[in-house]
Design brief:
Blueprint: E1 3-8, H1 12-25, E2 29-35, H2 38-45, E3 52-56, E4 58-59, E5 62-63, H3 64-70, E6 77-82, H4 86-94, E7 99-101, H5 106-116, H6 122-138, E8 143-148, E9 151-156, E10 160-166, E11 169-174, E12 179-182, H7 186-192, E13 198-202, E14 205-208, E15 212-216, E16 222-225, E17 230-232, H8 238-253
Parallel strand pairs: 1-2, 1-3, 3-6, 6-7
Antiparallel strand pairs: 4-5, 8-9, 10-11, 10-14, 11-12, 13-14, 15-16, 16-17
Helix pairs in contact: 2-3, 3-6
Length: 254
């Protein structure tokens, strides 16, 4: 089945390069159209049917986020393209949105394209995009999208009590006792979760310190969480952890 692709980038050379990469490395594709601005892309996307768009973050008359916010509906998959932008990359990761960094690597392009051709639930995509737009507009990472084998789970960041490594996956535990297996490793969560409350206390664990009950020093160093779970403090993280907690107490009392 042929996938209809739409490219949005304000640089003609970048559009040409991406078009060539797609036609070379992605099977059964048709370039359904191109645009160099938010206004032009909105006009065309409201009138033609596409399966996937490659969307640059920075455009002449706004951003890729602005374009998605203006569309009446989103019935296609979205893969963002961007020169490295720390905030944008964190927003994509937080909302489990695919992105490609420029210059685009052909292998990463093929992987993103393949993922984008899998069965698409438009309601889930629209929720992802809505959360992404909120994240970027408010610059607030209070909601997170967690990919699982059964689909996406949308959660409030503050409801996550702790995380536990499970190979390339992570168990995510919530304050209500629920547990899910997310198809993301602990390192990614360490990078994106708010550093003012989450701490990687051990190679296998990240805790939300809001749900920390006390520390235990007998038989090694542990923390006791509010749900009575005991988690070891790695020896190499011990000093940093106690400094983190002391600084948190000082900041909350100031």
């Amino acid at each position: 089945m042929t996938s209809r692709i739409f490219i949005v980038d304000d640089e003609p050379k970048s559009r040409s390069t991406l078009r060539s990469l797609i036609l070379t490395h992605c099977p059964e594709v048709e370039i359904a159209g191109e645009a160099g601005s938010v206004h032009e892309a909105q006009f065309l996307l409201e009138r033609i049917k596409v399966d996937m768009i490659f969307l640059d973050v920075a455009l002449q008359d706004g951003t890729g986020f602005d374009l998605l916010d203006r569309l009446s509906s989103i019935h296609f998959n979205v893969i963002f393209t961007t020169a490295y932008d720390e905030f944008a990359v964190k927003a994509f990761r937080y909302n489990a949105i695919d992105y490609l960094l420029k210059p685009i690597n052909p292998d990463e392009l093929k992987a993103a394209f393949h993922k984008g051709t899998l069965s698409l639930n438009h309601k889930i995509v629209e929720t992802q995009i809505a959360n992404l737009i909120t994240t970027t507009a408010e610059q607030n990472f209070d909601r997170i999208t967690l990919p699982t084998s059964e689909g996406l789970v949308f959660a409030l960041t503050q409801d996550i009590a702790r995380l536990e490594s499970y190979g390339n996956y992570s168990f995510v535990y919530f304050k209500n006792g629920e547990r899910i297996l997310a198809s993301q490793n602990l390192k990614l969560f360490e990078e994106i979760l708010p550093h003012n409350i989450f701490f990687r206390i051990h190679q296998s664990y990240i805790i939300n310190t809001i749900f920390l009950k006390k520390t235990i020093k007998n038989e090694g160093d542990f923390v006791l969480m509010q749900d009575a779970t005991k988690i070891p403090i790695a020896r190499r993280r011990k000093d940093e952890f106690f400094k983190f907690m002391n600084d948190s107490v000082k900041n909350s009392s100031s």
